[in-house]
């Protein structure tokens, strides 16, 4: 393992990230909220930490191996969790403890949307902007952004890209060169964010709220600048805009790229995963709306459809915006909405969860096993669309699913061991592992009631979910460190 190369790249990444603490300084001056010193200090500390890492290794130029890429990604996310917490600690308001500040920063950068802050409406504008910006950067991954500009620094990026984007489609490249692929992803992501902000602004949001919520919508992050989340605006048009862009953020960005390049929106429906995703969304919306109507929670059909559809979309896309407190909805709706978070969006999107393509593969593999019981000698391929998948891919999905569910159970038991009740523990881990945001019980809106030990457990769960289990667990395996 090339530790010197890893140290050099980690230093460069930290110096790169330090620059993102300067825009909130401008916001602070514009709104005169007197928090600029906290961001200046956070910038200086982060830049110096990166500089001290980079200087001793600045002359070391060797291509990273895949194992090195995994270490860089995990180390960078760990370091990022620490340094991005600095403004929350240094600002006079909210002036958070180290543990709570790390949780807030991890939640922002992993686009989870869980929070330990109460009183968002009273926070300085620069802090509110910084929270939203963390989600914007985390949406496609700061490492992918770094890959796009690394050629200027003389660093190869394929190993970092593979480590940052695990999953069944991880080796798919939109263009011949990885740097062009990363740029293409970011152009699409930025374009969707700008379009979302413009739509919010035209629908009646202030410019500040429009920009902030567009950062959290396309990234499927879920942070808001108000305690009431999207319910603050009480605007059906804004709800529809949010649903559209949450769904767009949850579609594989490779499909966005191909549809844009070929100017053919039919490509979306030709993709089996996208069809499966919208089928699931439509089915759960129908069930939720029916239950809300039958139980009299919303006697008016359009109200039931509006609030039911919004909460289904926000939970399955792992965004976590709220227009209503779904934790008090009748019958099985609260656990249903938490459960669909395990499905998540499409592979190659900003959404969390296990991803629709894996759920489809598990379903088709289950059907194949039933058919094999009836016809033991039959050769039955597993297909996604018209494409037959090799058994190696199916085995990898089974392995991922087993690790994902095992991680959920172990972390839930660990959280209960801190004194949290079963409902809060299970829903809290589920929403953090799936990058969803709100849970049930005492974690329905904020995680203030969770102990510091529980906060660390949930922070680990968010990192585990953001790196899709394998990337983080692989470096914790003894086999990874054997020569």
Distance between the termini: 9 Å
Order of helices and strands: HHHHHHHHHHHHHHHHHHEEHHHHH
Query: Ranges with pLDDT <50 over ≥5 residues?
Result: 145-162
Biggest beta-sheet profile:
2 strands, antiparallel
- Could you say which overall geometry the principal axes of the C-alpha atoms support? globular
Number of DSSP strand runs: 2
Our count of helices gives: 23
Strand order of the largest sheet: 1-2
Tell me the radius of gyration.
22 Å
Secondary-structure-based class equals mainly alpha
Strand content: under 5%
Q: Overall mean pLDDT score?
A: 86
Give helix % range.
55-70%
What does this structure look like?
The protein has 483 residues and is an all-alpha fold. The protein has helices at residues 3-18, 23-31, 36-54, 66-83, 86-90, 98-109, 125-140, 142-149, 158-164, 178-203, 207-218, 236-249, 253-262, 266-270, 272-294, 301-316, 333-340, 356-374, 391-416, 422-433, 452-466, 470-476, 478-481, and strands at 382-384, 387-389. It contains 23 helices and 2 strands. The protein has a two-stranded antiparallel sheet with strand order 1-2. Residues 145-162 have low confidence and may be disordered.
